[in-house]
Amino acid sequence: MKERLRSPWFALGLILSWRLALLVFTAQPIPANDSFLFDGGVINWLRHGQYFNPSLVEAYPISGHLVFSAYPPIYQGVLLVWMSAFGMGVLSAMLMHFLMFSAGAFLVVWILQKTFPANQSYALAVLFLAGITFNDRPEDLGHIFGLAALFLTVRHLDGKIGTVAAETGMTLLLLCALYTSPVVGAFYFGCAFLTRAAAWFFGRRISIASFIAVAILFAAITSFIVKVHPLWWRGFLENAHTTPAVGGLREPSAADLLKMIRAAPVFLLAIIALPFLLARRGKSFAVEYENKVWLSLTIGVAAMGWMLLAAAMLFLSPNYVAYGLYVQVLLAAGLLALARGLELKIRRWFSVAIVCSVALVSVRLVGISTWGVACACDVNYGRADEIVRAELQPFANSGARVVLSSAFLYRAAQMDVRDAVHSDWLRDKRVDDADGDFKALVRLRPPKLILTQFDYYRAYKSVVEQLRQHPELVTVSVRDAAKIRPPDAIPALARVLQHVSWAPVVVEFSWK
Q1: Are residues 286 and 385 in the same domain?
Q2: Domain of 210, in residue numbers
Q3: Lowest-pLDDT range, 52-66, 232-246, 377-391?
Q4: In angstroms, rounded to a whole number, what is the distance separating the alpha carbons of residues 191 and 206?
Q5: Residue 319 to residues 31, 66, 348, 382: CA-CA distances in angstroms?
Q6: What is the pLDDT of residues 27-49, one digit of tens each?
Q7: Percentage of residues of the chain with pLDDT beyond 70
């Protein structure tokens, strides 16, 4: 029994059971503020035969009115198959993303089980999967392709898979990852390449044919799309310019640094721990670890993770630090394997550091399981859906310009509120205007805002207060379904725990 508790598969079962129970009994994690951006085009296709997302039209004229191409297409293809079979509701989308998370988590543990030394328990490393709680974007599928490519890499280095099969599979999987999410695809491309580079450093013969093939094919396919389907490319650039992956060089803010510490503590720990643990092995290092694939994987993942963190702090979006959450499990396993056999005092201090890191990444899952459960007991998904349906009923089968949070737009689409507006995309955000949302609401004159607690306190509370200062324009009334105050409503806690309440906030306007 003790051995079973120490098994990584037991830890994985614990995480998946916990997440499944939260999904079944509390409908969490709630889809975040941009989930419908990626899903709305497929839903509109299934309902009306038109592949664009009307809720985005104010910010994305191409993806909102002509063809949805704000993101690469592979995720939309999988979503189309899923929703054709299991429906277009928000719960259907949430179940699909839970299964994607489960597949990614299974691949991580499989890599761990097949690659790392068997005389060590890695259950503690697997618990880092508790840090993955935002599952509502195409990146969930991109991680599956990337992790499968990483699995082929280590199995090929171990001699378990032939060169032709490994290189062909790697090429296809990395291309699929890139055309699901370019940043996720690039991250796993780097992890796999640096793992092979580390193996070469340790004296192994390696092949880089698949990486060359991926680079050539990605450039050729993208060039073909630009030339043959220029509208698709313009739609992609429309999103890339609005939410650019690469910005100018900047100094990281305190909030950025806090996000990195919370999401990637093992990568930060490894900056000190990895050189220290390698040095403690002494001069026997080269002989002892020759042909050890798990060490090559540990070094490759650490190096690529450090690059990602540096880029996210200096010129990429700081949200990209979360893209290393799956492989953080592998890095933690590598550090645990290196620490085995060292002095007891060192191992104890190292174990304490790993446990503290697990606690740090698990903050949101613990919050969902406590405060989130309390919010669900107050206003659960079923009650929230009843409220949203009642509020939308006067606008069913019409072109009303109701503004809704992403999590409620699925219901609006089912009720055929055709001109519903995504609350994050009232306007073109390429235009930097502090009063932009205020001006957009005055221009659109929506009859209602139906928002999650997260969106109301994050983006709309101040705008609503600003509108209240203009009675010559509009009369405003606010109805909040929540009796239990969510963390989003408390400024000191909003960055610690977010988006755990389904209770809608309904803002009604009477425009003059």
Answers
A1: no
A2: 2-30+69-244+252-361
A3: 232-246
A4: 15
A5: 16, 29, 32, 31
A6: 999 998 889 999 999 999 999 99
A7: 97
Show Cβ contacts of residue 249 under 8 Å, excluding neighbours closer than 6 positions: 314, 315
Check residue 283 and give its pLDDT.
52
> Do 348 and 450 sit in the same domain of this protein?
no
* Six token digits for residue 363: 């903050």
Domain boundary among 310, 328, 361: 361
More confident residue, 383 or 352: 383
The confidence score (pLDDT) of residue 281 equals 65
Measured CA angle at 429 (ends 421, 53), to 5 deg:
35
Which of 315, 334, 361 is where one domain is finished? 361
Averaged pLDDT score across all residues of the chain: 92
Q: Is residue 50 part of a domain?
A: no
Helix (H/G/I), strand (E/B), else coil: 432: coil
Cα–Cα dist 387/391, whole Å: 6
Q: Which residue has 């104010």 as its token pair?
A: 58
Cβ atoms 368, 500 nearer than 8 A: yes
Distance CA 475, CA 262 (A): 42
Peptide bond into 54 cis (omega under 30): no
Decide if 269 contacts 353 (C-beta within 8 A).
Answer: yes
- Are 276 and 315 members of one domain? yes
Residue 374 maps to a domain: no
The CB density around residue 476, as the number of other CB atoms within 10 Å, is 18
Q: What is the DSSP letter of 160?
A: S
pLDDT beyond 60 at 1: no
Which H/E stretch holds residue 184? helix 182-201
- Shared domain check, 110 and 19: yes
- pLDDT at residue 49, rounded to an integer: 94
One domain for residues 460 and 340: no
Residues 109 and 221 both lie in one domain: yes
Q: Which residues contact 19 (CB under 8 A, 6 or more apart)?
A: 98, 101, 365
User: Of 187, 119, 113, 186, nearest to 154 (Cα)?
Assistant: 113
User: Which tens digits make up the pLDDT trace of 382-432?
Assistant: 999 999 999 999 999 888 899 999 999 999 999 999 899 999 999 988 888
Task: For residue 483, tell me if it sits in a domain.
Answer: yes
403 and 469 together in one domain = yes
Domains held by the chain: number: 2
| Contact present, 112 and 330 (Cβ < 8 Å) | yes
395 CB neighbour count, 10 Å cutoff? 20
Is residue 177 assigned to a domain? yes
